[in-house]
Write a structure and sequence with these properties.
The protein is mostly helical and 243 residues long. The chain has 8 helices and 2 strands; from the N terminus they run ααααβαβααα. The protein has helices spanning 5-22, 36-40, 45-65, 68-99, 118-123, 135-151, 163-193, 197-215; strands spanning 101-103, 127-129. The chain starts with a helix and ends in a 28-residue tail after the last helix. Pfam families: FIT.
Length: 243
């Protein structure tokens, strides 16, 4: 899944955008921004990802390393992710503000030249139109790929001798898997119903770049949070977390 998911997301974005351009699909419940998945999950996407990955990374990495400092080092990936989320979303807002203009109606025919920012425009009852990079395309891409990368640790983890720990890790795995399905589905719905193609493409590429720059480049370095353990080099069998 880790190998094909980046290409799969890019394919979903291109396919969904093509269907939107051809207007082949009628409006539906998912085309409304008020749908429950958008309100209660997507708008809180980083919070859901953060608070489910936090115990998962802490438990699995401590179980394998028995080292608190190593566990904290790996948890710092969530701080990196928080910085990526904050910087990118702030940059998107600045780009929309810098490239936009204020209009008196959604028809974008008459300018409100006295309003020079999106905030001033909306306060004045106008309609701001700029290059609105899809924050959903960016964040859902990054969150889905980050979760899949972190769950790779299960290939070298054995919790069967500790029933309580086994139950906790399995519950977190199920929750993270379900969350990933929601992120991928809502990513596809974004491609189908919202934003222009260039806005979705840019957002998706930023998400892919953030994932690649961390998990495929920086985390390979010694001065980084590092990758989750993905091989059983410490022993001939999967380490058993029974204590």
């Amino acid at each position: 899944m880790r190998r094909w998911l980046p290409w799969g997301l890019l394919g979903l974005m291109l396919g969904g955008s093509l269907l939107k351009a051809l207007a082949l699909l009628p409006d539906s419940y998912m085309s409304s921004k008020r749908n429950l998945l958008n309100i209660y999950f997507v708008k809180l996407a980083w919070a859901w990802t953060f608070w489910l990955l936090l115990p998962f990374i802490a438990i699995t990495n401590y179980c394998l390393s028995r080292n608190v400092l190593e566990m904290l080092r790996r948890i710092s990936t969530l701080l990196v992710g928080t910085m990526v989320w904050y910087v990118c979303t702030s940059l998107f807002l600045h780009i929309e503000d810098f490239t936009g203009s204020c209009y008196k109606s959604p028809a974008l025919d008459v300018l409100f030249q006295e309003h020079l920012s999106k905030w001033q425009c909306r306060q004045g009852g106008g309609f701001w139109h700029g290059f609105d990079i899809s924050g959903h395309s960016f964040l859902l891409t990054y969150c889905a790929l980050m979760i899949v990368e972190e769950m790779a640790v299960l290939h070298v983890l054995n919790t069967e001798r500790s029933p309580r720990l086994h139950a906790v890790v399995n519950a977190l795995f199920v929750a993270l898997s379900f969350l990933t399905l929601i992120w991928v589905w809502m990513f596809f719905c974004t491609a189908l119903y919202f934003h222009d193609f260039s806005q979705k493409l840019f957002g998706t590429l930023v998400g892919l770049s953030a994932w690649y720059g961390t998990y495929r480049f920086w985390y390979l370095k010694s001065f980084s949070p590092g990758l989750p353990p993905q091989n059983a080099s410490l022993s001939s069998k999967k380490p058993n977390c029974s204590r």
